[in-house]
Amino acid sequence: MHNANSLAQQLASASLAEVEDEKLSDGRIIQQQKLKPNLDTIKKLLLDGNGEILLDVGVDDDGNSLNLSDEDFEHYMNELTNIAHELESEATLLKKRSNIKFRNQGNNSTKENELKTTDRDCYNYGHVLIRKRCGKIEDLLEIRVAVVGNVDAGKSTMLGVLTKDLLDDGRGKARVNLFKHKHEMETGRTSSVGSEIMGFNAKGCIITPTYLVKTKVTWEDVCSNSSKVLSFIDLAGHEKYLRTTCFGMTGHSPDFVMLMIGANAGIIGMTKEHLGLALALNVPVFIVITKIDMCPKNILEATITQLTKVLRSSGCRKIPIFVNNDEDVLVATSSFVSERICPIFQISNLTGENLPLLKLFLNLLPSNYNLKYATNKPVEYQITDTFSVPGDSFLLGPDTQGQFIPTIVKSIQRKRINVPCASAGQTATFALKKTKRSAIRKGMVLVSKSIQPTASYEFDAEILILYHSSTINKRYQTMLHCGTIRQAARIVSMDRDLLRTGDRAIVRFRFLQYPEYLKPGTRLLFREGRTKGIGKVVKGYTLKEEISGNHQNNLIQKTLHANDGNNDGNTAEFDKANLQINDIFTDVNSKKTRKKK
Asked: Distance between CA atoms of 242 and 210, rounded to whole angstroms?
């Protein structure tokens, strides 16, 4: 392991220097300018950070030392603790150090675990986590993490180790409680979208059976004792379940993606496919290399080198940060808001090596509710699954005729616990009236009446063809993923005669089964065999607005010109995402073609 760790450390030291140029503020980091914390400032930051903030103590806004002696630092921490208690929160010192910079930060020549003499001083610095105490379930901070990777990379085992408070035995002990179906237990391969939760209290302790002094804990136990909950979305790694994985990535709206890579296997199979999906959906990615206990040194080094090459390639353009200590975790967490940052962990689920570093990172993952969701907008709820509750019934729209039926919400649950309300960005379950379960399907929505929703068979989309072996014409059929929508669609018209790999176009799709509820600007994926493409919805047409094919081309051109002046920012962002992932998908499919030949 020493050689592999040395290689990772060399790559990390080079990457950390780049991170300083890429670091952005996410509302959770503040530099203290005075020796006495300000109550109003802390209160505002807690509100902006959805109940948690990370303070950098001992330096000012410019990174200069505040010269805190041992006595000053202790006094500051006491004041900070008192303020936290006034705000019904807890202040936890994560790291205290006597140097103003981290050991390997911004200096490639500094040896491992050594400091330059000029970096040492007699003052104190620290990182403090302030988090609200556990309260009402409806106010619980939730972060969704999608777990992806190639088959046999250890995804379900990793979740079992994190959520069940146990280590694996090398024969699947940790993962057995996560599977839903009998064939999953027999084969050890996930074929459905699984869900697990991991709770942290105000001090950052994980809510486990040991912590609660119980033999087994339920979701209600975890949520009742947690201030922050991570919801893991366990997705399938086998290629034949790619449809399920696409639905999990688009329909569950993950805040982060945890990409699993087996140290002994390297980047194979669906690894690049899943990385490309995360890039297409613009979701931050961190990587976990598993099975380091059974992997030879030279193979692990080859995996690290291969991974670094992929992340730094023109198709990905990520900055890898190899996390080897708690200081690396703090640097990675504060910089993870930048899309280019990609933390990498080397983990053993058998021995538990480096597991505390991953748990600390998960504890400090920032929330982005305020950036993604608007709590003052009308209600819109996407349906991802259905189940029956005795005595209750459900409702959904649009139905197969494109109609929305009025309903009343009888009750709401979060993490299987009854709550009086749910806010934007949260995962919740609703019990509705006067609709049979058979009338419900994935992809429907529950929306406010003020929206006046309409359903569309046809819609215009701006697309990019990532890969196709020949050409795409009108009447081409494909499987389309858009949020929770998963349905076959056909191209009825487009603004050019033919489409090939790398081409962009405005096309009009038509769903083959039933109309759907679409919002302009929503990202979409479509695939058919090896053909893959991405895009975004430009405009949906109601059933009354659908016009015969003689006028469709004219309408598409008008839609394109009408959006030229209004979507410049969105188009630029879309172009950026296209450039980042086009090389990855092209490389994956070209390798598959060579292998087949």
From this structure: 37
Give residue 485's identity as a one-letter amino acid code.
Answer: I
Helix axes 155-164, 355-364, angle to 10 degrees: 80
CA distance 102 to 47: 29
CA angle 285, 344, 62 (to 5 degrees): 85
Q: Is the pLDDT of residue 542 over 50?
A: yes
Contact assessment for residue 232 and residue 268, using Cβ atoms and an 8 Å cutoff: no
* Contact in structure between 442 and 385 (CB atoms under 8 Å): yes
User: What's the Cα-to-Cα distance from 106 to each of 13, 139, 330, 437, rounded to whole Å?
Assistant: 7, 39, 14, 58
| Most distant CA atoms of the chain, gap in Å | 81
Strands 380-382 and 445-447: antiparallel
- Burial (CB count <10 Å: 0-12, 13-18, 19+), residue 188: middle
Residue with tokens 């000029």: 118
Q: Rounded mean pLDDT of the chain?
A: 76
Q: Which of 81, 85, 86, 75 is nearest to 34 (CA)?
A: 75
Specify the range with the lowest mean pLDDT, choosing from 109-123, 240-254, 447-461, 510-524: 109-123
Beta bridge partners of 286: 258
Residues 6+ apart with CB under 8 A from 583: 313, 314, 315, 316
Q: What angle do CA 67, 70, 71 make, to 5 degrees?
A: 100
Give per-residue pLDDT as tens, 347-356. 988 888 899 9
Give the span between the Cα atoms of 38 and 79, in whole angstroms.
9
pLDDT for res 287: 92
The pLDDT > 70 percentage for the chain reads 72
Tell me which residue of 68, 63, 51, 49 sits closest to 101, measured CA to CA. 63
Rounded CA separation 305/8 (Å): 9
Backbone φ, ψ for residue 306 (5° rounding): -65, -45
Paired residues of 104 in beta bridges? none
Task: Provide φ and ψ at 201, rounded to 5°.
Answer: -85, -175
Q: What angle do CA 388, 481, 187 make, to 5 degrees?
A: 65
